[in-house]
Amino acid sequence: MNTYIAPRPSVFDRIGAVLAGVRDWLDERGKGAWIAAMILAFVACWPLGLAILGYMIWSKRMFSCRHRHHSARSYRHGFSAPTGNSAFDAYREETLKRLEDEHREFLDFLQKLREAKDKAEFDQFMQNRNEPREPQA
């Protein structure tokens, strides 16, 4: 019987998970919570406060009114609640589906373009490799 035992998460993975949870908790409460956390961190240990300030500036939490990371799917579902206007809801759903299809087709096109470029470069390489070289003087 083969049983797969998942590797135990490292200390860094666990610390990262805790920090991500703290970040998400602060994001839910808004910019004021971030500022309060930064001030408390400055009072407790100034390097920690400085690190939080740097993170807030780097991640643009300092200057945006609301900062949330959403996947495309959760972003879409945030706007998919019915508005009460069935014609608009149907139009919106149709438009979003069309845009998703166009996006998928565009990504497929880009992939085919990359593959064609790679093939052309490889063919050129093989042609240059098979050509006889002139002796250098």
Give an account of the 3D structure.
With 137 residues, this protein is mainly α. It folds into 2 domains: 11-64, no CATH class; 71-129, no CATH class. Helix content is 72%, strand content 0%. The protein contains 5 helices and no strands. The protein has helices at residues 11-29, 31-44, 46-58, 72-78, 86-130. Helix 2 packs antiparallel against helix 3 (46-58). The protein starts with 10 loop residues before the first helix and ends in a 7-residue tail after the last helix. It holds the Pfam family DUF2852. It comes from Paracoccus kondratievae.
Please write the string of helix (H) and strand (E) elements.
Answer: HHHHH
Question: Mean of the pLDDT scores?
Answer: 82
Number of helices: 5
The outline comes out as extended
Task: Kindly name the structural category.
Answer: mainly alpha
InterPro entries: DUF2852 (IPR021273)
Protein name: DUF2852 domain-containing protein
Keywords: Membrane, Transmembrane, Transmembrane helix
Transmembrane segments: 33-58
